[in-house]
Amino acid sequence: KHQAAFDAIRAGATLPDTAEAREWSGGEAWLLSHLRIPATDTAATLDRVAVFIAKGGVDQQVTMADADALVIAFRASGNPRVTFATYANLDHNFTYSATGDVAEYVDPDRTIDATFVADVVRFVTSL
Description:
The protein is mainly α. α5 (64-76) links the parallel β1 (51-56) and β2 (82-87). The longest helix has 13 residues, at 64-76. The chain is 41% helix and 9% strand.
């Protein structure tokens, strides 16, 4: 849904007139800084850092293919300390969501999933 906006930002062009593109209005420079250097390139240089990669099952911003590529890049660097976890009904913010729709992000009553938090704490305390 966001591909046209990402393509416009990469090209330095005007954002298309879509709801998804409007979500990025004002944040083009920030996003462009992330699009310039693939996370997999950075991962390949971090062979000694313990890494916890988490993926919400209904996340609409990070695909499973992206998460898998990141895991592969870290492991290809020789990094033996890569933990990967997926959470079936969690979105990009690791909160419960049936759909992962970003429109849900504005709900002030949403809370980060306790299982996700426990997994992060367990990972950090194991170091």
